[in-house]
Amino acid sequence: MIASFLALWKSVETNKVVGALFPNDEDGNALSDAKLGFPPAIQEAGYKLIDTGRFQPLSDDYGSQISAFKNAGVEIVTGVVTPPDFATFWNQAAQQGFKPKVVTVGKALLFPASVAALGNRADGLSSEIWWSPNHPFKSGLTGQSAKELCNTYEHSAGRAWTQPIGFQHALFEVAIDVLKRAKNLDEPASILEAIVATD
Length: 199
Hints:
2 domains; four-stranded parallel beta sheet; 4 strands
């Protein structure tokens, strides 16, 4: 994910000053980790990180983050925020005249409804892609391609595909594979052994 973000940012001329939006939750704490998260990779790539600290999810005021970003000359914003948090941040950024050149956020743009809710201000936003109809994988259960799985979902649900569909399907594939390989389904230790042996 970090490598994808950095590759994207290199395609745009910026001052390499990055504002971080990391909530006080599992994702925010993991991605803001000083050893294993974004900070060391971003700094190693020559970017300056402006991190105002963890914010509480579902905050209604991002004024301090926006002010800090404006004062530091932030031209790139990144983070891992929920759709409601990002919508609030992005609306307040517009109200305060903060217009970064690049915005690459995880989680906030996963679902079409979240993007549509931002209206025209969604144009130019970017995010990582976990899974799509264009991924070259086939289901171990049905043999369907990613595209066929999406088409089937859209036809039966009457809604657009979303990135988590592939991951949810994969959970069933793993569970069924474990059950097939377990030597004795009545023995929890046997099921655990099959889980541990999963590749």
